[in-house]
Amino acid sequence: MATHRYNTLSFALSVFFLLLLSPPCAAASRPPRDLLHSSCAQARYPSLCVQTLTNYANPAMKPLDLAQASVKVSLTHARTLFLYLKTLKVQTTSSSGFTKRQRVALSDCVEQISDSVAELSRTLNELQHLRMGTFQWQMNNAQTWASAALTDGDTCLDGLNDGTADGKFKLEVKRRVTDVAMLTSNALYLINRLGDSSTGKPPINSHH
User: Fold this and answer.
1) Helix, strand or coil for residue 30?
2) Burial 158-189, CB ≥16 within 10 A → b, else e
3) What residues have CB less than 8 Å from 182, skipping those under 6 apart?
4) Cα separation, 2 vs 87, whole angstroms
5) Nearest-CA neighbor of 203 among 11, 35, 17?
6) Cβ atoms 160, 177 nearer than 8 A
7) Where does the signal peptide begin and end (predicted)?
8) What residues have CB less than 8 Å from 185, skipping those under 6 apart?
9) What is residue 166's predicted lDDT score, i.e. its pLDDT?
10) How far apart are CA 99 and CA 95, in angstroms?
């Protein structure tokens, strides 16, 4: 009988400790998702932020990794947009279906998105080479370049909105430029969030 009570008590204690330890174990499996959602929650386009960065989530993810990933996504889309606009520019040059003002607007967009690509490249490079002694200066650079890339996209859209383009030409270009602008806006937010949450020490992995 004593042995039976001892076994029953041992089993009860085992279940108790198992239940006690389960919540932390479950929580430990959620950090990548929690970091992603909490970081994107206040972005200008939170759903887009989560959607485009979900594949980058991993157990070792840090705010810096998330900021870098957001810039990579924006840069990839900006490069694709630049190639599209460049090809379209060639087509408009040889086509009589476009007005002179449309060609000028498109030509301006090509230059502006080219600048965006260069600025986002600089932004990513800066975030990938943060150093303890120059962290704040480098963060300011990243913020400035990402902001400039966003401004270039807005300038392109302004040119398309002032009556220089219409029809399918205008709608498709605007859709693609807006897509890049939204991604860049989210990237800038995550960069600003990274800088604001810092205490002066860069959240740098040892391999950086």
Assistant:
1) coil
2) ebbeeebbeeebbeebbebbebbbbbbbbbbb
3) 44, 45, 48
4) 86
5) 35
6) yes
7) 1-27
8) 43, 44, 45, 150
9) 56
10) 9
Whole-number Å distance between alpha carbons of 2 and 6: 6
Q: 167: left (phi > 0), else alpha (psi -120 to 50), else beta? A: left
State which residues of the chain have pLDDT below 50: 2, 4-9, 11-31, 165, 199-200, 205-208
- The neighbour count for residue 91, using CB atoms within 10 Å, is 12
What 3 state SS string does 93-123 have?
Answer: HCCCCCCHHHHHHHHHHHHHHHHHHHHHHHH
Q: Where are the beta strands (DSSP E) in 23-160?
A: none
Report how far apart, in Å, the C-alpha atoms of 38 and of each of 30, 100, 171 are. 12, 47, 33
**How far is residue 66's CA from residue 97's CA, in Å, rounded to a whole number?**
44
> pTM for the complete prediction?
0.78
Q: What is the pLDDT of residue 207?
A: 42
- The pLDDT of residue 201 is 52
Q: Phi and psi at residue 59, in whole multiples of 5°?
A: -55, -25
The enclosing H or E element of 81 equals helix 63-93
Distance (Å, rounded) from C-alpha 157 to C-alpha 174?
A: 6
